[in-house]
Amino acid sequence: MTRQRLFTPGPLNTDPRVRAAMDRDWGSRDADFIALTAELRQRLLGVAGGAATHVAVPLQGSGTFMLEAAVGTLVGKTDKLLVVVNGAYGRRMAAIARRLGLSVETLDHAEDAPCDLARLAAALAADPGVTHVALVHVETTTGLLNPLELVAALCARAGKALIVDAMSSFGALPLDLAATPVSALLASSNKCLEGPPGIAFALVDRDALEAAEGRNPSLSLDLHAQWRGFEADGQWRFTPPVQVTAGLVEALRILEEEGGPSARLARYRRRFDRLAGALEQQGYRLYLDRACQAPIIATFRPRPDRPFDFAAVYGRLAAQGLVIYPGKLTAEETFRIGVIGALEDTDFDDLIAAIAEA
Ligand SMILES: *Cc1c(COP(=O)(O)O)cnc(C)c1O
Known about the structure:
By secondary structure, this protein is of the alpha/beta class. The chain contains 12 helices and 15 strands.
């Protein structure tokens, strides 16, 4: 079989060491596995510098399970959530809150516009009932980077708790919980951490989590109970994804060996610049302004002077084991190429050549 090369937002290519680490069995009560779980929680906190104030709570499932768990655990019936929306994932967070019957408003932006701080400040001033703000750090819909540090400072000044969907930034973009006031940072195993899919996690402010006992109407998605479970005996409350835990721990060791998030970001940036430069030469255009573009995933507009058939191009690339992604914009025909994952620079050369041919 041709090797699949995944130029997508995840799941992604993993390092052979990550796959090898998963090649054995563990029981959930094995001392070895309890030690792996402890290492996982400690390494996750270490990535964002949150050890003094935050606790790491892993959860079985994909990223969306964690969004639902965190909103349901942290936002109460008498609270109100304001979601900054500039793409599909912001809309998802608002949809989750509505499903839970919570009070929620959105601050809607165009899909190419980062969070407008003046508008956010005005919205908070106009509605003192808002207790929590939710922000997507990198909107994977397009690759848009929101100004997390500025939003966090604004929310702290206004006395609002901030919930951050850092799904496609955690592990690459700098995030320092000691300097950036964030109540909960949510991410998953299979994006910039380059681990296997199946675990999501939250780094949650300990005081906020302690105050959330019994709040989540869901038993399995209750982050407070999940945390208490780990603290009590080092074990997961329900059947743990043992292989995925081992794979993710190995992926976190590799991240550290690589030089941490700043080294990983430099690798992604190098690939991003190479890819964007080459495709711009071929006549494609980046959808976003460079100023608000995260080097994680690129959204391209096709050349205006030629018909573009995404399905045909996708098919020709896929036949060579090169997987790209359709656009996710509501308004425009675009396509997306992710630069994260355990890929080599030569994989990008192959992709660039194949697109030129297709
Ligand atoms: C990937 C992602 C999610 C979670 O998606 P799942 O398919 O549930 O893993 C949430 N938010 C953002 C910004 C993402 O990139």
